[in-house]
Amino acid sequence: MDWSHYRFRSLWALPAPPATVYDVLEQAEDYPRWWPQVRAVTKLSDTTGVITIRSVLPYDMVFTAREVRRDREAGVLEIAMSGDIDGWARWTLTAEGTGSIARYEQVVDVNKPLLRRFAVPGRPVFRANHWLMMRAGRRGLVAYLAGRRQGPH
Questions:
Q1: CATH fourth-level superfamily of 5-150
Q2: Hey, what long-range contacts does 149-153 have (CB within 8 A, 24 or more apart)?
Q3: In whole angstroms, how far apart are CA 49 and each of 7, 12, 42, 60, 62?
Q4: Deepest in the core among 4, 29, 92, 135, taking most CB within 10 A?
Q5: How much is the pLDDT for 153?
Q6: Where are the domains of the chain?
């Protein structure tokens, strides 16, 4: 087993229709406005950017994200990642009542030397760190969507 290889899946129930959620998720440069662990997004082109993330553990992960798929009709946004992590991530949005379900899938290999060094003993901690980041992301997105519905004050 490669201890530096991870597969993640998160399901977010959201109180907005898929088209509204899609509009927010496709604007990656705005993620730091609602997702505290996404520290910076530097746009390099219309389809590429550098993203810095940090969750509870005291280390940054920096990677280049390149758009692979942007399909509004199917509700799919997918990127390829290279840098501290290599792999891919995908959002898939589906309707659920008056809201939506956002399914996040990610398959990555960790390249950051410190994390590779602690791959075996740190694996449960790294997975918990990711879970906490995703939980905060969902909370931030729900609040951001609520603010968009209310409009400017």
A1: START domain (3.30.530.20)
A2: 149/16
A3: 22, 24, 5, 16, 11
A4: 4
A5: 46
A6: 5-150
Task: Please write the tens of the pLDDT for every residue from 51-73.
Answer: 999 999 899 999 999 999 999 99
Per-residue burial over 111-133, b if 16 or more Cβ lie within 10 Å, else e, is ebeebeeebeebeeebeebbeeb
Q: Which two tokens stand for residue 19?
A: 């088209």
pLDDT of 118 reads 86
- Report the distance separating Cα 143 and Cα 65, nearest Å: 25
Nearest-angstrom CA–CA distance, 43 and 26: 13
Residue count (the chain)? 153
Kindly report the number of other CB atoms within 10 A of residue 21's CB atom. Answer: 22
